[in-house]
Amino acid sequence: MNVITDHLAEFGDGLLLTVGLTLLSLAGALAAGVVVAALRVSPVRVLRAAGMAYVEVLQNVPLLVWLVLAVFGLPEVGVIAGLFTTAVVVIALYQGAYAAEAIRSGINAVPAGQGEAARALGLTFTQSLRLVILPQALRTVIQPLGNIAIMTLMNTALAAAVGVVELTAAANRVNLAEAQPIWIFVTAGLAYMALSAVFGLVTGTLERRLAILR
Amino acid sequence: MIAVRGLHKRFGDQTALRDVDLDVARGEVVVVIGPSGSGKSTLCRCLNRLETPDSGEIRVDGAALPAEGRALARLRADVGMVFQSFNLFHHKTVLENLTLGPTKVRGDSRAEAERRARELLDRVGIGDQAGKLPAQLSGGQQQRAAIARALAMRPKVMLFDEPTSALDPEMVGEVLDVMTGLARDGMTMVVVTHEMGFARQVADRVVFMADGEVVETGTPAEFFASPATDRARDFLAKVLSH
Fold first, then answer.
1. ipTM computed for the complex
2. What global pTM score does this model have?
3. Tell me, what CATH number does A124's domain have?
4. Which of A59, A163, B152, B193 has its CA 20 to 30 A from that of A81?
């Protein structure tokens, strides 16, 4: 047990960085997801194609490849950003593709009459989407978005591979010094599980509070 | 108020509307009847371009119906629509359903929109339901709220697409009463319905459609007493025999 208590500071710093990475990239992913889902249902063909291209390109390359590409490739083309910032942006854009697909399925689940009624009132397509369709769509996909939140949390561990010292990297460093992998990584694993449990609770509460009576 | 010329609409290889002409004068109540699949709902939905016609021209208050975009949205704001399945916004209270259009499209202040919304809800007899969600109302109450929502936009014309077809029989009357009141107040109305009593008593003119065509049109007195075509006679014999 000493191996954990002796290194509480490292674990604590790593955990904080993991939470920061997760919350920031999740916020970005939801924003990207809403925008890309809106593109995918747009009446304009070019915008629909752009939304689809985004999802296909982002989803069909592993996150680790994107991270390595961004960390080593962006400086080559003159974009200099910190490792943490780069990781947040890459994870946000990557998870954004998954969020977009979940949100799009929510949009498709909103009865067609809702959009027709909105347009019949004189709302533009964008207003209908923002004021009528999306508020209902998002409530129906709280559960899948919760899963994406957990997936985002797990995927932040990949940032360890490009030098961000989040929880997994911190655990790895402690292990290099102490060589007690079971204690160290079980501890890290339990921390991830605790964070996931928080997401699960939040998702369940939101789903109960925001359920739509039909 | 509404002028339709040579309207054609196809769904795949099915022709829904064939060369339809229709004129609705200001303050006139036109009731469109006909068998299922005769194209009457499609005609109604073409009038505010929820369906895009394949050819033909529609003018509302002198202006040709714009194809899309903001101009179309502006025109739709002047054309109220009531649907068979109410289509109230599920996530908003009844009051919010009524204030959404006026505040976002007309630019009314929230206070003004709410004041008018409450007036309209009182007028359709559900003033005490303002704070409820649509799902907490009966079908008849939902449809009356939907009529009030359309009226909140101060429309020039009201379209009714089978407004009582999804209602339990005991709730049909309360909705028809509201519509009759509107007609008395001089609203221009196009009503697609199977309610022959309403057509007889409230319509200024009855339009009978079959197979995507306007087969016959006339005053309710003429039409119900002595239909000119076999198809209208046949239809009336079926719907009026019970």
1. 0.91
2. 0.89
3. 1.10.3720.10
4. A59
